[in-house]
UniProtKB/TrEMBL annotation:
Coiled coil: none annotated. Belongs to the EBP family. This is EXPERA domain-containing protein. One of its GO terms (cellular component) is membrane. It comes from Penicillium nalgiovense. One of its GO terms (biological process) is sterol biosynthetic process. It comes from the Eukaryota. It holds the Pfam family EBP. Residues 67-208 form the EXPERA domain. It is a multi-pass membrane protein.
């Protein structure tokens, strides 16, 4: 990591490692825990959510296909991240730079790849608010639909998948126009900024395609049934006319 950049805020000098060097973070304090430590702690949370989700779907719907079990687990994980981790940013964005809570430290670590999260950027607040409070609950709703085989599953899955992909596209586009928000080390750009967000882009495209295929099949089936009924009625009328 590069040497700390010294920023002056009134009479106080605040040291930080974020880019661009000109941003003022008067409330900033260094994380108490190391990057490895907070990432491991977050990893344990992920593992707990994944494990509990797998247990739930295995008991509630033991005959579910592997594809549906995987979808259920993914929706639980993405719902947890959206509704808790990203909601934490929306609620605490003004004081995030000085936070020592686990999620606060995680956001400060991630912000090395995008310092806008520490400066209350309007676009990020709006985008993350939609992600947290719309896509978060919707993800859990879809998980429920998968568990009980509700017919609304694919319609809702298509909505959230398109929304996540669209959000990622806007996020990439707005940041890439001004790459100075990210530190120059490739690790922060390719691992934090690109890879972590690309997961939702890739998975979102997969589930959007899956739902589009299933909805198309359902309507094709309805059309076939409709045509069969029309042919049956026509045949019955002609038979009566003989």
């Amino acid at each position: 990591m590069a040497d700390p950049i010294q920023l002056a805020n009134a009479a106080t000098s605040v040291s930080h490692n974020y880019y661009p060097p000109t941003i003022h973070l008067p409330q900033y304090v260094d994380n108490e825990s190391s990057a490895i430590s907070i990432i491991i702690q977050f990893g344990f949370l992920w593992a707990a959510v994944l494990g509990i989700s797998l247990i739930i779907i295995s008991r509630v719907r033991p005959t579910a296909s592997q594809s549906d079990k995987l979808a259920f687990v993914w929706m639980c994980l993405t719902g947890f991240i959206h509704l808790f981790f990203e909601a934490y940013f929306v609620i605490n964005h003004k004081t995030l730079a000085g936070s020592q809570e686990l999620f606060g430290q995680l956001w400060k670590e991630y912000s090395l790849s995008d310092s806008r999260y520490l400066t209350s950027d309007p676009f990020l607040i709006c985008m993350e608010a939609v992600t947290a409070f719309a896509w978060g609950p919707l993800a859990f709703c879809i998980a429920y639909c998968i568990a009980v085989q509700h017919p609304a599953r694919h319609a809702l899955q298509l909505v959230i998948s398109v929304g996540q992909v669209y959000g990622d596209i806007l996020y990439y586009a707005t940041s890439l126009l001004e790459i100075s928000y990210c530190r120059p080390e490739g690790y922060y750009f390719w691992f934090y900024y690109f890879f972590f967000n690309f997961i939702w882009m890739l998975v979102g495209c997969y589930y959007a395609t899956q739902s589009t295929t299933e909805i198309t099949k359902a309507f094709a089936k309805l059309q076939e049934i409709g045509k069969s009924q029309e042919n049956f009625k026509t045949h019955t009328v002609l038979k009566k006319g003989d």
